[in-house]
Amino acid sequence: MTYDPRLPMTIVGAGPNGLAAAITLARAGRQVLVVEANHDIGGGVRSSELTLPGFVHDVCSAIHPLGVASPFFRAQPLQNFGLEWIQPPACMAHPLDDGTAVMLYRSIGKTARGLGGDGTAYRRLISPIVRNWRGIERYVLGPFRLPLRLDRLLALAWFGVCALPPTRLVASIAFRGEKARALWAGCAAHSMLPPDRLASSAAATLLTTLAHVAGWPMARGGSQQIANSMSAYLRSMGGEIRTDTRIDSMSDLPASEAVLFDVSPQQLLGIAGDALPDRYRRQLKKYRYGPGVFKIDYALNGPVPWRAEECKQAGTLHLGGTFEEIAHSESQVGRGIPADRPFVLAAQQSLFDPTRAPAGKHTFWAYCHVPNGSTFDMTERIEAQIERFAPGFRERVLARHITTPAQFEAHDANYIGGDINGGIQDIRQLFTRPVPSLNPYRTPAPGIYICSASTPPGGGVHGMCGLHAARVALREHRSTTR
Question: pTM for the complete prediction?
């Protein structure tokens, strides 16, 4: 690619990371062009009336602890461009068969009191990370590097002690009761890893920490508002976004100073493979994708009839029962088998955001993990889990909309086989995304960068992949600003 500082920097893909990269470049005074293949921007943060008129559903992501806690999002004035976070009274509820629920609150103390004899152990596990979060967040939410300050190194080491072992090991050492073990298993299952894998506890460590640091909020009006506010802010700085612009090869790109790709390694090979060295191409071909998801969106004629009343306080629900049940479910998926009793992640946004449904009606969002590219219909199994903890749920269903792994990939080409994390996040690929490198955002080809969730810190709506990639591009293209 010809270096020409008079040309814009181009971002391919208008998902959260692509928009974050564009905003970072625009704030530095650079000309920015974002090209998006779809008619709508947003990638994983889109919303739509999937079931019935007036029912607004989040097509992909729904709850955003990483969004509200992200250093990138904190630094942007997106509240001036329409973004408003809604914090439910409880971050998460995990109902059990005895009619009670394990609750995750913003308060560590309130959460610990609900864990009975394990409350003290929970405090000891999480409090040091919460207390030191601002000092270590840049190391957790970025490429691998060690802090120079001793206090931050020690705090990061404790995070690693909690995050890097298998979920089963952490739960068995830290907790004795079923409530705390179930809480840990449900949060860990966001990793899409079997509980006996190294680093499977990373998601539990991160998500419980973020619950106490920033909460698990939703965006008022739908997740689409995140993308809309980012695009409005970008345009206010002179950035340009072109939708319905598909890039299949480098020849499709407009003349640019540099290009940042918010795409998966598989897509990068298809678009820019000829421009990349053989060794790098071989490395990208070895990149591994994880399980997919099977999702159902519901239009309901009333709220979900939870048997445990406290579930009505939470925006997020973990439906899977005990630690061993969740472990069995995720292990089946890891072996390529659709789970017979799947762990179901659910969200009830309309309880706290009246813009999501007509008066007196509600939306409900639920998905489970399935083998990558699975074609198995999980509808009955998901609904059986919901009905288990909310008897009479099916009687309230007005309409449902199903999204299979193949449909997720069709919706967003980054979701290979339905993998919403942009690649498996196990110990081998947690920091070595997309290839082992001290600078994972730069490709060996001059002027070509990757800024998708296939780079550190991986999946989630946080914009940090885009932020880091844009900073690398700015360092390497130090032309005069506008």
Answer: 0.95
The span from the CA of 423 to the CA of 268, in Å, is 14
Q: What is the pLDDT of residues 10-37, one digit of tens each?
A: 999 999 999 999 999 999 999 999 999 9
Mean pLDDT throughout 386-406? 98
Mean pLDDT on 354-373 = 98
139-172 CB burial, b ≥16 within 10 A, e <16: bbbbbeeeeeeeebeebbeebeebbbbbbbebbe
Displacement of CA 104 from its chain's centroid (Å)? 19
- Distance separating alpha carbons of residues 404 and 373, to the nearest angstrom: 9
The residue type of 466 is G
The model's confidence at residue 144, banded by pLDDT at 50, 70 and 90, is confident
157: its two tokens: 């080491």
* Cα gap 90→313, rounded to integer Å: 5
Q: pLDDT at residue 6 above 80? A: no
**Residue 31 Rama label (left phi>0; alpha psi -120 to 50; beta):** beta
Find the farthest-apart pair of alpha carbons in the chain and give their distance in angstroms, rounded. 66
CA gap 93, 104 in Å, rounded: 6
Residue partners of 172: CB distance under 8 A and separation at least 6? 181
How far is residue 297's CA from residue 390's CA, in Å, rounded to a whole number?
A: 16
In 3-state terms, what secondary structure has residue 9? strand
In sequence order, the β-bridge partners of residue 260 are: 11, 449
Single-letter residue type at 87: Q
Give the residue among 284, 240, 259 at the shortest CA–CA distance from 1: 259
pLDDT tens column, 196-207: 999 999 999 999
* CB of 91 closer than 8 Å to CB of 314: yes
Whether 2 shows a pLDDT value over 90: the answer reads no
Q: Tokens representing 300?
A: 């309901």
Q: Which of 133, 140, 141, 136 is nearest to 17 (CA)?
A: 141
Q: Which two tokens stand for residue 326?
A: 């969740």
First-last CA distance in the chain: 21
Order of strands, edge to edge, in the sheet holding 9-12?
240-242, 32-35, 9-12, 258-261, 448-450
Q: Report the chain's C-alpha Rg in angstroms.
A: 22
> What is the average pLDDT value for the chain, to the nearest integer?
96
H and E: helices and strands count for the chain: 17, 16
Task: Identify whether the C-beta of residue 23 lies closer than 8 Å to the C-beta of residue 30.
Answer: no
pLDDT for 149-177, tens place per residue? 999 999 999 999 999 999 999 999 999 99
